[in-house]
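Dear H.,

Thanks for agreeing to be a second pair of eyes. The structure we're designing against is below in token form, covering all 160 positions.
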């Protein structure tokens, strides 16, 4: 028997101003995407911007539904659209930002478990890490270096 500890590294930026010019521009696209969120039930608007290796940026926002489970998170809207438009292009970075009608979101909004699983699929497929930049509407920005970092022991095609 052996116990194992898993760890991973995050980079925490004090704000948008600390990001590189490219990352700042990508996050600005996620902020813009947030404005097209359809979130009449949660009043929580999320925007995502997916940067591809070919330089294209594909955006998404959460799209809710009166039948709640039929809605979809911003990250999956964006990454599925990227997969649909550019099936063989590597995903480099996904920038995510969230805001709320009810409060100021000043802490980074981490992707839900379903979105982590969906993004892991592309990371495994492309055999290259997908970097994440996560933000609220203001405040710190967290960088994760790989989806597998935030979904340890994740399920992938190797089990099938
Ligand atoms: N949401 C996202 O878009 N991404 C996440 O990773 C977490 C949650 C959306 C889903 C729903 O429309 C709203 O935020 C509240 O859960």
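And this is the sequence the design step returned. I haven't edited it by hand at all.
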């Amino acid at each position: 028997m052996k116990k194992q500890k898993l760890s991973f590294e995050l980079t925490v930026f004090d704000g948008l101003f600390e990001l590189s010019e490219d990352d700042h521009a990508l996050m600005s696209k996620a902020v813009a995407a947030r404005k097209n969120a359809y979130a009449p039930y949660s009043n929580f608007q999320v925007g995502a911007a997916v940067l591809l290796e070919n330089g294209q940026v594909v955006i998404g926002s959460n799209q809710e539904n009166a039948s709640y489970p039929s809605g979809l998170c911003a990250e999956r809207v964006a990454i599925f659209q990227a997969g649909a438009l550019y099936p063989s292009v590597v995903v480099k970075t996904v920038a995510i930002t969230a805001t709320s009608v009810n409060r100021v979101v000043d802490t980074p909004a981490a992707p839900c478990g379903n979105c982590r699983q969906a993004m892991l699929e592309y990371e495994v497929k492309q055999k290259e890490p997908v970097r994440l930049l996560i933000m609220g509407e203001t405040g710190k920005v967290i960088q994760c270096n790989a989806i597998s970092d935030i979904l340890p022991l994740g399920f992938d095609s190797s089990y099938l």
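Two observations from my side: The longest helix spans residues 21-34. The longest strand covers residues 91-100.

Warmly,
E.
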